[in-house]
Every structure is written in C-alpha cells, then in structure tokens.
Amino acid sequence: MTIGGTTSIVEAGQLLLIPADMPHAYGSNEHQPWSIFWVHFSGAQSLQTLHSVATTKNKHLVSVSDTNSMIQAFEQLYACIDYNYSDAGLFLMSSKLLHLFGLIKLRQTLTSKKSMASEENDTKLCISNMIENSVEYMKQHLHTSISIDELAKDAGVSVPYYCKSFKHGTNQSPIAYFTRLKIRKACDHLYQSTLTVKAIGELLGYSDPYYFSRVFKKSQGCSPEQYRKNLINEGLHHE
Description:
Elements: E1 2-3, E2 6-7, E3 14-16, E4 24-25, H1 46-52, E5 61-63, H2 67-78, H3 87-139, H4 148-155, H5 159-170, H6 174-192, H7 197-203, H8 209-220, H9 224-238
Antiparallel strand pairs: 1-2, 1-4, 3-5
Helix pairs in contact: 2-3, 3-5, 4-5, 6-8, 6-9
InterPro entries: AraC-bd (IPR003313), Homeodomain-like_sf (IPR009057), HTH-like (IPR037923), HTH_AraC (IPR018060), HTH_AraC-typ_CS (IPR018062), Tscrpt_reg_AraC-type_HTH (IPR020449)
Protein name: HTH araC/xylS-type domain-containing protein
Pfam family, one: AraC_binding
C-alpha cells in the first residue's frame, strides 16, 4: 500500500483507513494473494470518525484483535444494500457503519492492552534472565571483590537500572546478594574442610580475617569459629 509517497505493508489483523481525496495505490503479492473488504463513506462526521480510531495524516493502519467480528460487522453493513438506498435503508446503513467503527475502536483498545501486556512480560523475562546471568557471574567471582559498576557492565545496562531491577527481582541489593553467596560458600568450607578461618576468608576475597569475621557474624549471628564448633557439637550429638 502506497499513500502520499509512503509505502507500507498491510498484514493480517490490520485495517486501512484512508481519508477522502487521499491518493493511494495498493496491490498484493502474487504468491500470497488476499481478499479485501472495503467501504467508501462521506459526511460531516467522516473525519471525526476516522480520528476517533487514531487515524491521522501519517497513520492509516490500525491493528485489531478480532478480524472475524470485523468481517461479520462489514457483512451486516453490506447487507443494507438490499434496502435499495431508501431513507430507512440509509439510516440503518449509517448505524451499521458506526457499529463497525465502534468495534474497531474496541478491538483496537484490546489489541493495545495485549501488546502492552506482552511488552511487560518480555521486560520481566529480560530482567529475570539478566538477574540469573548476574548471579552466575557472582558465583564465578566469589574469590574477588566486585563493584556495582562491574556487575552493571557485565549485564550490559546502566548502574541505576541494574540496581533497581536486581533489587526488584531478589528483594536485595546486588552487593548484599553477592555477600550472601560468599557467606554461604564460607559455611560450606567450614563444614566440609579443615581450612582455617583466615584461609577461607582469603579464598572468598577477604584479605582481612577480622573484617571477614565481622561480615560472617552479621550474616549468621556468630563468628566463623563458633559456627564450626556448633557444627561439630551437632555432629557429636547426633552420633
């Protein structure tokens, strides 16, 4: 379809609304032919009716969510020709035309809402994937200290967007989540190995053993040494 020198492709589920006296041309692909339903109308409310469905000088394509209802409404309109353009027939035809535009407006609104919902779901999926990839990146770097800038850069987004999205998805800030992963790994080492607390801290990027102990205690409620003792005592009790 070409209107005003601009060519557009009309796809399934779309209507084409063209104001009066607007030069246009259209055709179909010979390998994918189609049928069209069309109606010409005029009157004092013509432009107002077109504008009501968001048709402007540069926007002529309208997407609808249910083309079957559009076809049924058009066939009801077309059937009014049987009344031979009598006053009653013209009145009925006008009402059917308004009914058709009412459906267009309704279906257009529903399509817009579905599109927004789809976009929202896509955004949520992208954020979910971003968080999943970021957590995996954290797990691979438990032996280092990572800054917010590094995490955002790895995710390919800005720092504010990264922080907001990560916290929305996990209820924790990125650094708090990273620290939790480190402490969880520390707990594994305390339970499964005989490494000293200092050695475990160094494995997790804590060069200062006292700072590591403070971070651990803040998370677990006890020092690493006490945590290991508790595990040993529990083991003896169970035996």
